């Protein structure tokens, strides 16, 4: 027999626009604020931490960091002799473009 847990009421203050925006986004996921908040609390308990990373990093900074990492990885691979020379790569791209143009005729 399943025992129903006692319900508790929580009252929070938040920005009106934030609530409106969150309600709209959650509605697109077929969730209401109460259900989403309960999911959040459930994950806090299960993970024993916030279920997301808190950062001051903007989206642009995150993209810049990812680009920097990709460049550093590419340089390391080039120094290790991995990859192909640029002229060979460009020639393969040109051949592929020519083939696509020929197929579309």
Structural account:
By secondary structure, the chain is mostly helical. Helices cover 64% and strands 0% of the residues. It has four helices and no strands. The protein has helices at 16-28, 33-47, 59-79, 86-103. The relative contact order is 0.04. The mean pLDDT is 91.
What topology emerges from the helices and strands here?
Blueprint: H1 16-28, H2 33-47, H3 59-79, H4 86-103
Outline of the structure:
This protein has helices at residues 16-28, 33-47, 59-79, 86-103. The protein has 105 residues and is mainly alpha-helical.
Taking Cα atoms only, what radius of gyration do you get, to the nearest Å?
26 Å
Q: How large is the count of helical segments?
A: 4
Number of domains: 2
- What string gives the helices and strands in order? HHHH
Q: Roughly what percent helix?
A: 55-70%
Report mean pLDDT, rounded to a whole number.
Answer: 91
How many strand elements? 0
- Which regions contain 5 or more consecutive residues with pLDDT less than 50? none
Strand content: under 5%
Q: Assign the structural class, choosing from mainly alpha, mainly beta, alpha/beta, alpha+beta, or little secondary structure.
A: mainly alpha
- Overall shape: elongated
**Oligomeric state of the chains in view:** single chain
Q: Describe the main β-sheet briefly.
A: none
CA(first)-CA(last) distance? 71 Å
